[in-house]
Amino acid sequence: MSAHANTAWLLSEGKRLAAEIKALDGKPDAGPKLLVLYMQLQDVVQRAAAELPKEAA
């Protein structure tokens, strides 16, 4: 996968995770699912940050 395609996928995945997190907002039993989603989002952000220097080169 090219760096640009990977960055596009990471952006798409980040948006998807953010939408899922927002959909669970205010639900009292969402804690465990929110934890998983936030951990996945953190991973996506870290991977996107690692891609930024590649895109600039």
From TrEMBL:
<protein>
    <submittedName>
        <fullName>Uncharacterized protein</fullName>
    </submittedName>
</protein>
